[in-house]
């Protein structure tokens, strides 16, 4: 009888001044990931710089059972945001206590930062020469403090293999779902997203959340056009047809679409087609020509081009990776659900 694979251990480091919402994200997202038999895929534990009470930025404390020694047992360490990072935020250096805690982390452990948790990883040198992000309001300060880090203020999260960072607050959800998808495939990640009542993937970056003039509330949105597109991803789609769904001119529709989604209609459609292709690659054994046709890319060459650009790997490599992660193919992709798109 095949033995059960040990759950991947995620240890969340709770620092003084932490944000309770962000502390809860890893527990909520990783804790909902199950294998086909319903067994948890992750074990999530919390530690502090010392066992005991940890002050939050709210009107309550949390009690943490474990001290920093728990970090030595982690497969993944998550550092949520804190508003009281002291010299980490002000000078870009670790306190002695925090440095001693991080010293417990084994080489090869995956490191994840949510929002300003990235300051901790940067101060420890983990982000030197690597891409990273943080909340858009802190990005300029973050870059000044850590010039060796390649800060991208426009994205929701970055993935550099064993080191990942997210923008503020809810972007931590996006990042954790991305990790679940990377570890176990879109089927598992989409189910976690459904149970959490969030989209499995958000298009666009932080630019759509920076304050700017809002569309007049009485104007129509582009929701109907997007729903229309999702039913026709395998068909040729023209901008004039999308605009017609909302009874707008192409110019007005394009401007409104970008205001509401943060990206152009063309880029949004490509993103949805990549998501459809990912589902087909993970859940079917269809040949690449059929995957290309059913996802709207037309040819295997076009499929390779867009998947490589979006995911950094070829469709063949992507399929091989996620089948190895335990996703079993089926013989027909006609019933594959690409999942909700927002």
Description:
The protein is α/β, with parallel strands linked by helices and 342 residues long. Helix content is 41%, strand content 12%. It is built from 14 helices and ten strands. The protein has helices at residues 20-31, 87-91, 96-102, 117-123, 139-145, 171-184, 186-196, 223-230, 239-245, 250-261, 265-283, 288-295, 300-311, 315-324; strands spanning 8-14, 42-48, 52-55, 61-64, 76-79, 110-114, 131-132, 150-151, 157-159, 163-166. The strands form three sheets. A six-stranded mixed sheet has the order 2-1-5-6-10-9, with helices on both faces. The protein has a two-stranded antiparallel ribbon with strand order 3-4.
Helix percent band: 40-55%
Per DSSP E runs of 2 or more residues, the count of β-strands stands at 10
Give the N-to-C terminal Cα separation.
42 Å
Low-pLDDT ranges: 212-218, 324-342
> What is the structural class?
alpha/beta
Kindly report the average pLDDT value: 87
The largest sheet has its strands arranged as 2-1-5-6-10-9
Shape: globular
**Major β-sheet, in short?**
6 strands, mixed
> How would you spell out the order of helices and strands?
EHEEEEHHEHEHEEEHHHHHHHHH
Taken as a percent bin, the fraction of beta residues is 5-15%
Kindly provide the radius of gyration, computed on alpha-carbon positions and rounded to a whole number of angstroms: 21 Å
Count of DSSP H/I helices: 14
